[in-house]
UniProtKB/TrEMBL annotation:
It is a multi-pass membrane protein. This is PTS transporter subunit EIIC. Gene3D superfamilies: Glucose permease domain IIB. It is found in: Cell membrane. PROSITE patterns: PTS_EIIB_TYPE_1, PTS_EIIB_TYPE_1_CYS, PTS_EIIC_TYPE_1. It comes from the Bacteria. Residues 120-471 form the PTS EIIC type-1 domain. Its main location: membrane. Keywords: Cell membrane, Kinase, Membrane, Phosphotransferase system, Sugar transport, Transferase, Transmembrane, Transmembrane helix, Transport. InterPro entries: Glu_permease_IIB (IPR036878), PTrfase_EIIB_Cys (IPR018113), PTS_EIIC (IPR003352), PTS_EIIC_1 (IPR013013), PTS_IIB_1 (IPR001996), PTS_Sugar-Specific_Components (IPR050558). The chain crosses the membrane at residues 125-146, 158-176, 183-201, 207-229, 241-262, 282-304, 325-348, 360-381, 393-415, 435-456. Pfam families: PTS_EIIB (PF00367), PTS_EIIC (PF02378). Residues 6-90 form the PTS EIIB type-1 domain.
Amino acid sequence: MRNDPASLATAVLARVGGPANVTSAAHCMTRLRLTLADPTAADPDALRSVPGVLGVVDGGDGTWQVVLGPGVVAEVTAEVTAEVDRRRPARAPGAPSAPGSALKEELRRRNATPLKTALRRIANVFVPLIPALIGCGILAGLNGLLLNAGWLPGLTPALSAIASAFMALIAVFVGVNTAKEFGGTPVLGGAVAAVVVYPGVAKVTAFGMHLAPGQGGVLGALAAALLATRVEKWCRGRVPGALDVLLTPTVTVLVSGLVTLYGLMYAAGTVATAIGTGADWLLVHAGAVAGLVLGGLFLPLVMLGLHQALIPIHTTLIEQQGYTVLLPLLAMAGAGQVGAAVAVYVRLRHDTSLRTTIRSALPAGLLGVGEPLIYGVSLPLGRPFLTACAGGAAGGAFIGFFATLGTQVGATAIGPSGWALFPLLTGNAGPAATMAVYGGGLLTGYAVGFAATYFFGLTGVGDRPHEAPSS
């Protein structure tokens, strides 16, 4: 039975120190992301025991990720936000901080390693873009099918415009989100990032050659907006208040825009080209090995919440080539997880609680949402998590092997995986071959994940009852 979002939100807040301890709340496809003023006030064990909570990830820098699953996470986030806004106590300007706040801030700083902070902030920039990437990617795939079949010729130009418009201007959205995340004025970040995609840059010569609209892509937009934020902050502290409204935006856009045109676009374009070239080289020359490594390591990245840091790479590949060749390889991790879960279901036939969890989480797992199975099944059991990774590695190696033979499998958007990725598939060998290779990878992941778990993943567990977290 589905948990009531309001009750679940109340239960989560009670175990993270209450609404007053939450400084921000957001969500991705499956996780409620909380930033806490006092991370030590959270009780992770109590949080994991809440019915409906599938897992908890401590970001180590005051951020917590509560895995709730698709659909429900958006409703719970809305309830959490409303409760925080309603019950957070206001502190008068100049009032002293709560006792021990200095110590708590010191603990937060110690846990906020540069790598963790950078990955979290990158995720905060790109995660809000995922719904549009999914929607536009599906429409692009549908439009491609209609074009290939010669159907509805009067509709395909409209679908093409709808599907392509967001990707054409994604740099602006990246700029807005970057400035917002790093403390600048969002519209100024967007204004500077818009330089990257403005058609008029073709008339600008830098490093002895004309720039190309879109050169540098999302990486250039990210760098441009970061620079704009730094310039804006520098101006705010030096420009007299009476002139701030005129000079600060002007200087920010001028300085950041010029640096973007005469430096950042070229540098980011070089990096973006290297990413595309490197991905192609890797698959052509070491496809099976690359697929083995990527498919095998992706589940640990998902478990730690670090998989969002790959979004800029996926987005760069989609901008350059029209699809990302990495996502189908990474999606094999979910196939290994499904195979492992089915093996657990078959072997532990007397564990009613665990089998119920698997039945409820398996549909989401087939559609590429792996957290319910990770936190509800394989991770609590231990060894099945490793055998699930083995299944993912096998599926990735399968797709990578065909890449070395010349059949590349890509995705026109990011977000879905599993069976939900089929509408987004494309490649260089036609839709039939692309779907066949991807489907073969899924079946390989299922089979190896199942076999490895059935024969090696449950040694010593047998039919012993196991209390899995309620789903």
